[in-house]
Amino acid sequence: DAKTTQPPSMDCAEGRAANLPCNHSTISGNEYVYWYRQIHSQGPQYIIHGLKNNETNEMASLIITEDRKSSTLILPHATLRDTAVYYCIVSLNTGNQFYFGTGTSLTVIP
Amino acid sequence: KAGVTQTPRYLIKTRGQQVTLSCSPISGHRSVSWYQQTPGQGLQFLFEYFSETQRNKGNFPGRFSGRQFSNSRSEMNVSTLELGDSALYLCASSLLLQSRTDTQYFGPGTRLTVL
User: Fold this and answer.
1) What are the mean pLDDT values of chain B's consecutive 10-residue runs (115 residues total)?
2) Are strands B5-7 and B19-24 parallel, antiparallel or unpaired?
3) Which of A43, A50, A94 shows the shortest C-beta gap to B94?
4) Most CB atoms within 10 A, among A17, A88, B61, B100?
């Protein structure tokens, strides 16, 4: 069973920041938080992951709360190509199975 | 570096047949995982292989099997196909290092249609 809870859908205006929340209240101390996105019928695309500290890469920023029970993925300047389903996953390491919940369907509006 | 490749990309079979799907991981990656994605069940984990050994298995019937070769390439097989096996089958590879830089990378998937 998925260990995360995400809102089913969100809208974001093009050019604005998209903030996607995720609750993972049962996360254990050594589990990472991973974010992936999937554009219709394509393979999931890795975005970012983190353990405790906030992380940033060329695609997004990941903000993890101090108690690690929730996180937020931030797409700083959303474009139409960011329209996708975003999945938040917690996992011990990459060899363990990823439990994909239902994700958040993000629609970027022109 | 080339990404994860899966062949074939599309496949049509009839009930009762069997099918073999192939996955080539990113060069240097030794762990390969397989997932099934359907509209009703979403993305579900099938199994994971490392060094030619199945290490983890999801909750799927024995008709679903897989293997990994010494070059880390992997195949999955579904025997006695059922209509419900129609799905997008995804393969993912990783280095399997407990490293903050490691993660799973997914291929484009194989779309299987069972008639």
Assistant:
1) 92 98 94 93 92 91 97 97 97 76 88 97
2) antiparallel
3) A94
4) A88
